[in-house]
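Page 37, top half.
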Amino acid sequence: MNSSKYNFKIDYSDGLKLTLVDHKNPNNTFKARVFINLQKLSYNFVHGYNSAGGTWVTEELINDKTFEYTWDEIECKIGYWHKLNYKGYVPYRIEILDCEINEIVHREEFDARHKLINFYLHSQDPNTLHTWMCAIEKFKKEQNCQISIINDYLKDNQNYSFVDSYWRAEENFIRYYAGFGIGRFGSENTPDLNKNPDGIKGKNDLEIIEDILYHYTKKL
């Protein structure tokens, strides 16, 4: 397969955006198949006893199954961009099918390793920001990535050594592999489910960021 006839741009900076080009056939169409991998774990409670009559309970893993979930299929036309509007973290796997020849001509997986991931933090409250920064540090270790932060308060204080760069909102910083906005969007009755997939009603600060970073990768 001659891949030079194609130009595929897959952008994770604000949701998922696909731009596809066939240099030899401007009327061609593609189908983008988007998948995510999920893991299902099952546990059994194990009771233990000692000679003094004490007891304890531990969890024993009895099943570990990884399976793939089809997120979406997108019919893509040349000359247009196509976007999935969900803004949280999803470890996408993408296959692009050339409909003219009915063959997969491109495969790609979201891979943050050694790349810059940006977080736009929509709060100026130091306590809220500290909770979010602790979760972001965990995310950085898991992904083995670099971190940039857009937030005025943190730009002025810069108290977190694991951050690679700080920016203000007006600096329009967009040079990163993937970007996530963290905050409470919409209202409790009408949340923005593309940004807060499990709503915001009754959520503490940790639950807000965990919903955005782990909602679609939680163990089922």
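Page 37, bottom half:
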Amino acid sequence: MSKLITFIFCFNLLQGEGAEDISFRYGFMGQLQSNPDSTVVLSDSSVIHTGDRVRINIGYIREYDFLLIFKDSQGEFEILYSAQTKMGAQSSEATKQDTFATALRWAKFRDPPGEESFYLINSKSPLSYMAKLLSRYDSAPNKAKIKLAKKIQVELDDLDPNAKADLSSIASRLDKPLVGGVTFRGDDDELKDMSLTHECRGTGGIAFIKIVLNHK
């Protein structure tokens, strides 16, 4: 999957953030070859096929670090979206505003099939080490990439709440469908390109979710 340009638009998305330690909203949109005239909501374990198109939207408070990391079916990593604050910088009114971003514009999946993994991370603490690893990985030769990929996976697993708590409690706290309508749906309740369909809530200053699409 090629590098993708991100376009950022500011909206008032995350009212009431204080009720949770940290959260963000997201939407995985799919346009499937089996039904090309419709847009569907994808979630963890959704099945996609070669040639199907996927788009990812996110909404978060701008003063926090946000990373969207993609691991393809061959185990190769890529940053699809990165927004980092300056360590130690004073929060301003501008950075406290909410941000909507198209983290992955409509893109087709290509062979080989397998698990296509997306890691969405919103953190109150800088994710500088993770970003540094991924930057080194991007320009490293093949042998070095293998070692760096292992380090990246260790860091991701360390952030993954599923490795730290009971799965039943995680299910109620993370990957929560939005109730009472979907942000950026039209009056006819149809999904739009910019729709956000789920909310991820975290504690301890980090909200993390892994979405795996089953590429057939």
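Margin note: Helices lie at 128-139, 142-159, 167-173.
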